[in-house]
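**User:**
Everyone, produce one record:

**Assistant:**
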Amino acid sequence: MARKLRRCRKKQEIIGQNKQPEMRFVKSLGKGTYGSVDLFSYTNHDGSTLYNAVKISDHQSYDSIDREFRILSELRGCSGIVQSFGDSLLEETDSDGNRVYKMSMEYAASGTLTSFIQRNKKLSDSIIKDFTRMILRGLVSVHSHGYVHCDLKPDNILLFPRYEEETWYCSYELKISDFGLSIKAGEKSHCWTKDSPFVGTPLYMSAESVHDGTTVEKTLDLWSLGCIVLEMYTGKNQWSGFSVDDMIKPLLLDGKAPEIPETVPCVARQFMEKCFARQPEERGSASELLLHPFLIGDQKMAGGSGGGERRRVGLRIRKPPSRLEDVTKTALKLKIVSSKPSQFKKISNKPLKVKFLPPRPPRSNFVPVQ
């Protein structure tokens, strides 16, 4: 009897160890075409509270969330890609008795790139470059596995805050999310139709997607990247408010790209013009764009892999004097001044004072760099 009780206790301990932590709903993070995303919290074994973002789709959108889960599983550990958890989708029944599917992912506490742009309006040149590098690294991961994202836009770029322990300086790590429309390069998209010739969101789609969008290539994502970079500079999408059928589609059919304002720096303009090249092959690849002068022309600021709302000031050292003696052996200047200011019709008979002035210190070798 005692032996049987020990076996029962041991079995209960094993079940308790394998039991998944209870998830508690916190808030809704957003809704999309193929489902919604909610925030859940749970208590870890050590007592700490952790958060996960959970994407939920109904049975009608199963193909989309299943495709996304399989792609994210393949991209686990890749740079610039939001990470999913678990070995399979979780199938449950909602309050109405309908079957739903859930996918657990890491939670981006700083939200999307869209919300970041709205909060900060026009971003600084250094932050835009940092963000562009991280998005491109994510695209390199996607494209190296043979996939095309097909819906790259600020809403699908997530920001993860990173804090320095000593200074609490905040930087950001950007990751690409929402792979519900992603397909293998060269395959035909099921989303493209004659009436709606766009694989993803029309505001970020390339010109060739209107002509022959049935076949999707990796260069489509590079056009979308150009739209994102332009939006970071201007604070808005250049085609927002345009009618898709009356304005955007005709512009793309005529070979037009979003207009780049004159205020955009020249090297950034050249980068975007490459992304907007009419011939897709002229855009190059994500790996090649990482080597563009726009991204390698300056060194990244210290203090984190990503940009932040606060930027540190770096110091650039000018070339020092050829000899230290050139500064220390400068001759003293002699200036003779009277004890009282001279006046007309009156001459002072008091002796003059001699005042020695030290040499003017050399100009500082340190210049603040923004």
In short: Confidence is low (pLDDT under 50) at residues 11-18, 299-330, 362-370. The chain has two domains: 19-106, 113-310. Residues 125-144 form the longest helix (20 residues).
